[in-house]
Amino acid sequence: MKAASFFNIRAVRGACCPLFIIFSPLSVCCEMDDILMDRKWSVRKGMEILKTTDLSKYYSHNGTVTKAVDHVNISICKGEYVSIIGQSGAGKSTLLNLLGGLDKPDAGKVFIKGTSIYDEGKNLTVFRRRNIGFIFQSYNLMPFLNVWENIILPVGIDGKSLDKAFACELLERLELSAKKNSFPEELSGGQQQRVAIARALIMKPSIVLADEPTGTVKLVQL
Ligand SMILES: Nc1ncnc2c1ncn2[C@@H]1O[C@H](COP(=O)(O)OP(=O)(O)OP(=O)(O)O)[C@@H](O)[C@H]1O
Ligand SMILES: [Mg+2]
């Protein structure tokens, strides 16, 4: 299976959905039906930044069990860029939520920079905020905050001092400077998603996870 790239996401089978990106020039395609990882084209350098071991998440409903994520083992190094594609319902969002510390696995572990995130207990929220940038498909912007306030929100929650030059650079590069004082309802879909991207990057996270990140966004070279 050939590598996916940000600009040329490969359809593996039928209607596929690009799922997440971790910045880098790499090449991993993962077909979610059977979690097929093909690393023939990848050059693996640097430290392992994300790893899962037998990660599983099952849903039960009326006696039927859906194995949304079933014993997934992934290893991703710093600098790698990964796209996961698979059919609707294959488990992409479920996996992404588990990788991002947003859901709890039924079994298995997620390690980010060597930390088993689900063993962090109450510290998981802080760990997540400082290490993982998450771009939601539905943006999840705060409607009562303007663009600037939405972008810098994680910094305020974390009690850190703002790197204003970096925030302004994000605004500029994501072509949001003119919309700095606008509220989400006054933005186009693409503008809203770029605000979500800036918010995911403002904490300079180790990993960026994005669920269907190219739906409305004009690609911007950062
Ligand atoms: N909260 C839930 N309760 C029960 N089943 C669920 C729940 N969330 C997801 N599922 C099931 O788990 C499977 C995987 O869902 P998931 O949302 O991860 O798929 P996906 O690959 O992201 O699909 P899509 O491309 O349509 O977004 C599906 O069969 C779905 O119905
Ligand atoms: Mg999904």
How would you portray this structure in words?
This protein is an alpha+beta fold. The chain has a domain of 147 residues: Rossmann fold, CATH 3.40.50. The strands form 3 sheets. Strands 3, 4, 5, 7 and 8 form a 5-stranded antiparallel sheet that branches. A 3-stranded mixed sheet has the order 2-1-6, with no helix packed on it. A two-stranded parallel sheet has the order 9-10. Helix 3 runs parallel beside helix 5. The N terminus is likely disordered. Bound molecules: adenosine-5'-triphosphate and magnesium ion. Adenosine-5'-triphosphate (ATP) binds next to strand 3, strand 4 and helix 1.
In angstroms, what is the radius of gyration? Answer: 18 Å
How does the major sheet shape up?
Answer: 5 strands, antiparallel
Ligands bound to this protein structure? adenosine-5'-triphosphate, magnesium ion
- Supply the CATH architecture of the domain at 2-140 and 204-211: 3-Layer(aba) Sandwich
Overall 3D form: globular
* CATH C-level category of the domain at 2-140 and 204-211: Alpha Beta
Portion of residues in beta strands equals: 15-25%
- Unreliable segments (pLDDT under 50, ≥5 consecutive)? 1-43
CATH topology of the domain at 2-140 and 204-211: Rossmann fold
Overall mean confidence score, pLDDT: 79
- Give the helix proportion (percent range): 10-25%
Give the helix tally: 5
Strand elements, count:
10
